[in-house]
Amino acid sequence: MVMAMMACTDVGAQKLADVAQYVPAAAAVGLEYVGPTARHPLRERILMTATAYTALTATVGSLKLTVSERRPDGSDHRSFPSGHAARAFMGAELVRTEYGWSWGLGAYAMAAAVGIQRVAGDHHFLHDVAAGALIGVASARVACWLLPLERRLLGWDSPSVTVTAIPAYAPDTHTVGVAVAVTLH
To answer: Which one of 15, 48, 63, 103 is at 20 to 30 Å from 32 when CA atoms are compared?
Structure first.
């Protein structure tokens, strides 16, 4: 796949890169279901991915608006940094963090292929992709660093959780409902 993306610079390769940029993040969340054991439970992997995307989107979006660098193809002034590369490398770092280098290497190869396609397709300069890659990795690291704080804020570090559900029925309207209370101890 890496070689195919490097060799193609047409619309098909662009569409492939548009999808491939999300594959590493999806793998970080779900790879455990096809074999390897993740370091964190599913809800924490989802939270880390969401936190990383939030940091990445804020950083990339801010830089694109303030730097205003023209793309190599001249289509607009939002070249710096590469959002595709940032998303791909963020996912690759999350895969490496969760599953180790044996899986992370493949994710990083896919991320590199996305970056290569962005340069080969005349959408970015090399420094746009390099900056995107750094932002992606940094966003993933920030998400990992914030996870213990987020766990505490969400009550996931609590020793026990009590869930109470009370069913309700209104005979005049024939409606059924339920009230749920969650208590974190």
So the answer is: 15
* DSSP three-state, residue 98: helix
Phi, psi values for residue 164, rounded to 5°: -120, 130
CB 114 within 8 A of CB 91: no
The Cα–Cα gap between 183 and 161 comes to 6
pTM for the whole thing?
A: 0.80
For the record, the structure tokens of 176 come out as 């059924």
Burial string for 144-175 (b: 16+ CB within 10 Å, else e) reads: bebbeeebeeeebeeeeeeeeeeeeeeeeeee
Q: What is the pLDDT of residue 15?
A: 87
C-alpha of 132 from chain center = 13
